Amino acid sequence: MPIKRIGILTSGGDAPGMNAAIRSIVRSAYYNNLEVLGIRRGYNGLINGDIIQLSQSSVGGLTGRGGTILYTARCPEFNSPEGIAKARDTCKYRGIDGIVAIGGDGTFRGLRDLSHAGVLTCGVPATIDNDIACTNYSIGFDTACNTAADAIDKLRDTMQSHERCSIVEVMGHRSGHLAVYVGIAVGANAILVPERPYDFRQDVLEKIYCTRNRGHSHFIIIVAEGAGNAIDVAAQIKEHTGMEPRITVLGHIQRGGAPTVRDRVTASRMGKHAVDVLIEGKTNRVVGILDGSLQDFDIYEALEMKRGLQDSMYETAVILSRSV
Ligand code: F6P
């Protein structure tokens, strides 16, 4: 039976480009004569019936706006059979045939359970961590990289003036994608990531000494939040070099701001694909880009996939930060 009405929600940490994805889903759905409801505050909205109508005009001007107009939240209740049952009942009551959820792995686990309960589901990957295994790229990553690089460029100016060492902690949860990209982009002297063990003397101190020997007197060290703590790194540098490093934890600023063109376009493409998936009657799917092509995967398989740090990317970062 053809579907008539779909719901959209955003869940987990927000990411720049989520609004562009919402707009794309709404416009693609109306193009195919589907009605669209917006479910607010993640899966909570599905449990509590916190739902609004989304018209074509309600999503005008959204491509360039950060955050998510639907709000987002993590919803522990959705992990229980009772939570899923309530969500399924809401879908039945509101005539929702399919749900598109924009978020990360936790969001997709929710979709998997909802699809078991008989609702068609499709996920759209959005997280600044870029750690979703079934896709080379997640919405929000490029914007977060640009935001962090811009902040660190500014830090470099003042570090250079005062001949200081800057320790910058970037987000990424348990992954170092953001740290490596940003580290390459700003020409960091050292980059510490959770996926690769590091030797403090060789991977931090030696790099500082070599940089100093080449006549430089300021240093930028990037620490991924999953690799350790900027305060500990600063304390060790102080102990061994006598320098008094300054610490900057970039924090949630990395999740905000207007999405870059890459994020706007990727979100728009992925959103449209998700609607096509539901119209085809598929369920338990998640959209991804692998080797440049837009695809969709079974959520079970997607959650089993592993995504490490690309060796060549890490190697590039290490080689470029060496200054012998
Ligand atoms: O997953 C996105 C992310 O920003 C991570 O990089 C970070 O560890 C986490 O979310 C922070 O979560 P919260 O917004 O709940 O503090």
Could you characterize the architecture of this molecule?
The chain is of the alpha/beta class. Helices cover 43% and strands 18% of the residues. The chain contains eleven helices and eleven strands. It is elongated and about 70 Å long. The relative contact order is 0.17. The site of 6-O-phosphono-beta-D-fructofuranose has 9 residues, from loops.
Distance between the termini: 67 Å
**Judging from the principal axes of the Cα atoms, what is the shape?**
elongated
| Average pLDDT rating | 96
Report the structural category: alpha/beta
The small-molecule ligands in this entry are:
6-O-phosphono-beta-D-fructofuranose
Query: Assembly state here?
Result: single chain
Query: What is the C-alpha radius of gyration, as a whole number of Å?
Result: 22 Å
Strand content: 15-25%
Low-confidence stretches: none
Helix content: 40-55%
Strand order of the largest sheet: 3-2-1-4-5-10-11
Q: How many β-strand runs?
A: 11
Helix count, DSSP H or I runs of 4 or more residues: 11
**Biggest sheet details:** 7 strands, mixed
Order of helices and strands: EHEHEHEHEHEHEHEHEHEEHH
